[in-house]
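Researcher: Here's my situation. A collaborator sent me these components and asked whether they could plausibly form a single complex. I don't have experimental data yet, so a predicted model of the whole assembly would be a useful starting point for our discussion.
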Amino acid sequence: MHSARRVVVTGLGVVAPLGNDLDSFWSGLLAGRSGIDQIRRFESKGFVPPYAGEVKEFQPEQYFDKRKVIKMAGRHTQLAMAAARMSFSDARLTAEGLDAERFGIVFGTGMLRADLADIGQMARMSRGADGRFDLRLFGAVSSSKLFPLWMLRHIPNMVSSQVAISLNAQGPSNTITTTCTAGAQAIGEASRIIERGDADVIISGGSDARVDPLSLVRLRKLGLLAICQRDPQEVSRPFDIDSSGMVCAEGAAALVLEELEHARARGARIYAEVVGYGTATDAYDLVYPHPEGRGLQLAINRALTDAHLSPEAVGYINAHGASIPRYDLAEARALKTAFGKHAMRLAASSIKSMIGHAQAASGAIEAVACVKTLETGMAPPTINLRRMAPGCDLDWVPNSARQLAVEVAMSINFGFGGYNTALIFKRWSGGV
Amino acid sequence: MKRRVVITGMGAITPVGIGVDDYWRGLVNGKSGVDTISAYDASTFSTRIAAQVRDFRLEQFCAVEEPLQCADRWLQFALAAAQMAVDDAGLQPGSIDWVNCGVYLGAGEGATDLARFGESVLAASGESGQIDPRLFAEAAAGLIDPMDDLMREANMPGALIAARFGAMGYSSNSLTACAASGQAIGEAMRIIQRGDADVMIAGGAHAMTSPLDLLGFSLLSALSKRNDEPQKASRPFDAHRDGFVLGEGAGIFILEELGHALARKARIHAELVGYGLSCDAYRVTDMHPEARGAIIAIKRALADAELPPEDVDYINAHGTSTLENDRTETYAIKTTFGQRAYRIPVSSTKSMTGHLVAAAGATELIACILAIKNGVVPPTINYEFPDPECDLDYVPNEAREMKVDVALSNSFGFGGQNVALLVRSFT
Amino acid sequence: MPTREEISEIVIGSLAETLGIERNRISLDSALVADLQAESIDFLDFIFRLEDAFNIEIDRDELFPNEIARDPNAVQQNLITEEGVEQIRRRLSFTDLPSLRAGMDIKTFMTEMLTVRVVVDYIQSKLNQSTALAG
């Protein structure tokens, strides 16, 4: 980092298909458990695909001080609120101990503009005389029958906004909307805000809750979803020769980023330091990554330069590993190019093998896992890896978690539109 | 030594003019871009007016392949405005280090294809009133083009612009509602100041004028219902204002580090000198009654620019024409600027363009820069009945000649996000 | 036509759901803004529920004398004038406003005057009107 202000991670919170809190999430990952299962959100028998990575038994009420807010919070907001509040507690922050104007919220999220519950019901009542959808009828019906606060559930910045209101965060905030890399960028953007002196504490993360018929159809028709006759738990198989696509998932994660002296002054427990952030576009295609992962290479190099580190300093990578063959291959190539010979000595795992691809939340969930690896010296596995796909021949920590004491770990992430992100974390051994 | 950031290119697509010159002409002539909605049948909606961009054809601005010709409007606006800005800045392929040029936008998302969604729902609706999700998905699979759908994600304008110019630098997309493009410009400025780039493409695009957008804001009682007099509906600070009018468009800038701009003898429009950011953290839609967030954002921008409040010559207000915003913003300006507030012209160009939501910050910053360059401040039109709680000089109805050296642009987003940008003449 | 007690039950129930609070926290004298911290979006939700429950249309301006508040004859320097008192009583004739008097701060009035009782009075008068029209 360029300046004198250093950024550390002092709190973690996560709601994911493997568990609705940090401990169950992390122990699930280390045990190589899968959170992917038959979809229960809607009647999925006969639906293609019938499986996804769902957050199970989520109870939003405990995370909202004001119950009235829940009805206008979409599921992605509810998950984000849970993750944010858990990270706030985990960091042992208190409202009284914070300067509200120097406390901000930066979240990355995806968007769902119309769902079956609200707009769907209005559309159902808008059948014209010719049996077709009639906009005039829709306008008339919706003006009187649609829940007036409906749109608040879908506006992307309501995620950051609700969290900020709940925690009285009046400082610099942002909402990042770069699809699958939004959560990772949110963390990077937050670190920049603290580094430049505009805030001392930022809760940053990502949230996505699009396990719904329309979103699944879209991904399926783009040819990205794994459609196969397997046990759901074996479908997500990043870097494996038999991978046929990604598994859609939902979730949220939050990291409390804090300026180092601020953390020290209050005796905070420090997980790790954020030492590098790099981001780049492929400038190539809207759906697929550049075949050599050129944007990812740039992001990795920029992060390393930012951290004043050579590639050899990195001991572990929390990979993107979406389980989409073209993506996995581009990622492997990018790693080989960016890390040269060192690539063969790196350990890199994809937790999407266990929780699926939570899109805008994935970068944040994976950053949490990356920080936990540094803290505990344990790398989660890439499960379902029986035979590596050609070109994907790196050490992906296949099938079992591994003890791995590393000083520096990198989390990489990329998605639709060709946006790529690399975050570098360093193990905190400095004590408080 | 802080790196200085200047503006070397601008592009604008707005309801009062297409292209920067046309936009400026519209503003100084007090032209209203608001009219009855013609793009679809809005007759059963409680608000039936919007500020639409008319007579826009993408091919006039850039050569594009077929799929983009049918792309959602806001994508087309973004591309056209970006091309205008790049041309305005005199940038060619190979003329700058495009690999390190980033695209930081505050672009909104595309419109939902409501007709197809509706048809899919009807195909799945049984007698019982239930919608079968499986049937819905199958019908949707038949009707919805997945690329078309994916291309409605908010980062697609940025992705297309990056691909078009080979810009592989530090890029992102903010979607902080009405503050989005203002924020993007501020963040792009920070990226250059930090040394992560010498050139950035920044700004925003949004076309939040589709049926669902209209419906959503109507139900929140945010929109004017003056359907019989569309051109008079957007009336910021006027006592008879009753809500905002949705608009659409794009504003894109080329931001550049000063030394880099001078070295290539670029024409410099103005200098970006201050950026302030805050969050109300108060309520979901209501602004803090004492404008605490807005005041913090403006003060931070002034501190960032190392300028005292007395140096501000013109304020382009957020001025949405809602009862609450205009009153609260007036209070914020008075609190920050003290007695001098009464001598600073404050105008809201939303009176003419309507509310471009994510694109508002960018297009309004362009208005500020043109005010500086031309020595004219645009008016707040439809100002007829003074409101005792809004008693500043809003440049009522007619543009005014005056020297402007420093201008402030406010954007106070839905959900409490506040952005203030300060821009100064460059000589 | 529901009884006054039935109307009160439904109004309190709708308000409790809107605000996400227990019914027993709400009495007829509870002021929506001053006591229960209702904000604009709560009013949107509340009115939506009342319209649905009673099958009537509610115009917010009938409940909230907003443009009287901005009339310089009715309110001067934030205080309600005699003329203002007259206008408000005429507009809100369906209810008693015992605390309303000239010299009162308009903001205090707006936050305190809208009680559950006033809403019940309003609903009752609307229902009486439609019964009268129907009959």
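Model: Some features of this prediction you could bring to your collaborator: Residues 125 and 138 of chain A are 7 Å apart (CA to CA). Chain A touches chain C at residues 66-72, 144, 147-149, 152 (CB under 8 Å).
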